[in-house]
């Protein structure tokens, strides 16, 4: 029996040291030490021994079991360590390998200009509004005092959706004046940037879709002087101190008096050059005192309240802000152009 145990010991230790996985180790444990294992089979023969021999043999068996278990345990640790090592090797990251360059986009120059414009007006206490590009002619024209028959309502100027000319792509952001008057508490100080649409051919200064920033103030005692002061302050904030501007009389159905505002050309300083088409000035917005009829149509007492409004061309402001010479560059989205900002 001792010889059998000796043999078992040798076989077991050899097999254990040759095991190559946790699974095969477990199989060996079952084979040698399990309930139906080889050691158990040997111990079943204890009955054949004499009473004197049994304790020594039992002790021997216990020692053998302990030794095999210890070997299995240490082999398991070795295998675990090797497995970890292999995994670390496999998953190793060489942080010194140069990475793939991720190209980050950035804001379009026109929207950069818009951010600056919003900041300036918010700083002056204005609220920024957003409104529909698909608009009712009522808001785009009627409530702005541009009645039936006004030339800008013509099908050759405006994109309509229906044959009755009721639903349209807004041709200006001015309908936001009416929407603000109808929904907001007085006094009102808002700007409303957004896209507008007109049936224009594309050239260096025109596009059938462009952007405006509408602005409006309504309060008691508001005058044309406030309009000029606010817009001059704004232009200096956006283009720098000492920016030269001028106001020219103009006509809009919804303002009276009306004007247009020009900014002196940054390229030639007013002498006239290709950028300003020889004018020396760049027209940037239309403005005026809100017509009393427009206030009344939206339920505001024009005896008590006055107001002014402006609508500026965002592309034009962005072009001057970033010294861009052609409107088409803003829409073509050529990365070689956009990357410069
Ligand atoms: N909506 C006018 C335009 O598109 C600009 C404007 C706005 C004029 C507000 C006066 C007041 O030309």
Task: Please describe what this structure looks like.
The chain has twelve helices and nine strands. It has 341 residues and is an alpha+beta fold. The protein folds into two domains: 2-90; 109-338, Bira Bifunctional Protein, Domain 2 (BirA Bifunctional Protein, domain 2, 2-Layer Sandwich), CATH 3.30.930.10. A seven-stranded mixed β-sheet has the order 1-4-5-9-8-7-6, sandwiched between helices. A two-stranded antiparallel sheet has the order 2-3. It is rod-shaped, with a radius of gyration of 43 Å. Bound molecules: phenylalanine.
Order of strands, main sheet, comes to 1-4-5-9-8-7-6
Class of the largest domain in CATH?
Alpha Beta
The fraction of residues in strands falls at 15-25%
Question: Could you give me the name of the CATH homologous superfamily of the largest domain?
Answer: Bira Bifunctional Protein, Domain 2
Q: What is the tally of helical segments?
A: 12
Write the layout of secondary structure elements.
Elements: H1 2-17, H2 22-33, H3 38-43, H4 53-90, H5 109-123, E1 127-128, E2 134-136, H6 137-140, E3 167-169, H7 175-183, E4 188-197, E5 209-219, H8 224-239, E6 245-252, E7 255-264, E8 281-290, H9 292-297, E9 306-313, H10 314-322, H11 327-332, H12 335-338
Parallel strand pairs: 1-4
Antiparallel strand pairs: 2-3, 4-5, 5-9, 6-7, 7-8, 8-9
The protein binds phenylalanine.
Could you list some keywords that capture this structure?
341 residues, alpha+beta, BirA Bifunctional Protein, domain 2, 2 domains, seven-stranded mixed sheet, two-stranded antiparallel ribbon, 12 helices, 19% strand, rod-shaped, binds phenylalanine
């Amino acid at each position: 029996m001792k010889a059998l145990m000796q043999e078992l010991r040798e076989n077991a230790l050899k097999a254990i040291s040759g095991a190559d996985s946790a699974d095969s180790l477990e199989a060996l444990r079952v084979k040698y030490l399990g309930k139906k294992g080889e050691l158990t089979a040997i111990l079943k023969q204890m009955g054949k021994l004499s009473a004197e021999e049994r304790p020594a043999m039992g002790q021997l068996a216990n020692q053998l079991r302990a030794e095999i278990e210890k070997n299995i345990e240490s082999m398991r640790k070795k295998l675990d360590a090797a497995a970890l090592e292999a995994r670390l090797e496999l998953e190793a990251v060489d942080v010194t390998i140069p990475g793939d360059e991720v190209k980050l986009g950035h804001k379009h120059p026109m929207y950069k200009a818009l951010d600056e414009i919003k900041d300036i007006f918010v700083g002056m206490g204005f609220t920024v509004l957003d409104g529909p590009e698909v608009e009712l002619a009522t808001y785009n024209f009627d409530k702005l005092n541009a009645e039936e028959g006004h030339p800008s309502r013509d099908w050759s100027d405006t994109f309509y959706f229906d044959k009755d000319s009721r639903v349209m792509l807004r041709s200006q952001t001015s309908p936001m004046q009416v929407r603000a008057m109808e929904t907001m508490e007085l006094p009102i100080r808002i700007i409303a940037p957004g896209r507008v649409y007109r049936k224009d051919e594309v050239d260096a200064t025109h596009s059938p879709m462009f952007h405006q920033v509408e602005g409006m103030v309504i309060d008691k005692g508001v005058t044309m002087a406030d309009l000029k002061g606010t817009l001059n302050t704004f232009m200096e904030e956006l283009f720098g101190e000492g920016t030269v501007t001028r106001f020219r009389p103009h006509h809009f159905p919804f303002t009276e008096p009306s004007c247009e505002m020009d900014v002196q050309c940054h390229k030639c300083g007013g002498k006239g050059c290709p950028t300003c088409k020889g004018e020396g000035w760049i027209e940037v917005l239309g403005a005026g005192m809100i017509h009393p009829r427009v206030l009344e149509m939206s339920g505001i007492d024009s005896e008590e309240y006055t107001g002014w409004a402006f609508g500026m061309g965002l592309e034009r402001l962005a072009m001057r802000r970033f010294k861009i010479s052609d409107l088409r560059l803003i829409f073509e989205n050529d990365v070689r152009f956009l990357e410069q900002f």
